[in-house]
Amino acid sequence: MKIAIASDHAGFDLKELVKQHFADIFEFEDFGTHSPESVDYPDFAHPLADWVSKDPQRFGILICGTGNGMIMTANKHENIRAGLCWCPDIAALARQHNNANILVMPARFIPVEVAFSIVEKFFNTEFEGGRHQRRVEKINLNK
Ligand code: RB5
User: Cis omega before residue 125 (within 30°)?
Assistant: First the structure.
């Protein structure tokens, strides 16, 4: 499975650790940043969200300090449902109830081991559909 991943400088170390930790399971498409030098999170969130939005089978991971900059940017894109996850249970619910297609993590507020568990949970949980399908459809302003 190919997963897009991107971060700003605050999420750079965690992005690299996630790529290493899951290297045998996922193929990562790295949208940057590629160093801890200070950058602007929208410059990385927009290209990743654009890539994910083009195919319903695509998923992504975005990481910044709080997660808020990344999630605000990604959710401007049509067909993107980015969920801010700080624990594995929230990650599971973002998939089960919200059919999230981008996992957003706050690097400055979660230990690395928790981040690994969040990634594992997110990508091993299916959307439940049913009443949640109706709700997810109502998110889109054009419907
Ligand atoms: C960078 O200092 C920080 O503002 C950024 O990573 C993120 O938390 C913004 O929402």
Answer: no
